[in-house]
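Troubleshooting: if your tokenizer reports a length mismatch, compare your output against this known-good record of 131 residues.
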Amino acid sequence: MSHTASDLLDKRKGALDAHCVVRDILNRVGDQWSLLVVTTLAEGTKRFSELSREIGDVSKQMLARTLRQLEQDGFVQRTVFPEVPPRVEYTLTELGRSFLGPVIGLVEWADAHHDAVVAARYDYEGRAQDR
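Known-good structure output:
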């Protein structure tokens, strides 16, 4: 079967587009805070203070930025209730819930392989010192 230069370029462009799609998504949700927010919201709707308390070491500014980005990308819904003081709640959208499968898979993989990764790091450090 003969391929033209155009066919090869189309295949290459398709592969590059796929990498760009993956890179685009990973750039937004691949940081530690996004994954922690998504897994925390998997338990149900939370207020900002609950998220902050449950995640722990995230600054309020970083949590607010992460929530805005997740809302912008359609993973999180922000609801403001007209009360005094205003009550704001965050919940996963259908898209956010669909992301839980891969996230839970990653969390389970990390839990199962953490010891091996740590051992590999120590092994690497020992070999690096011998160089």
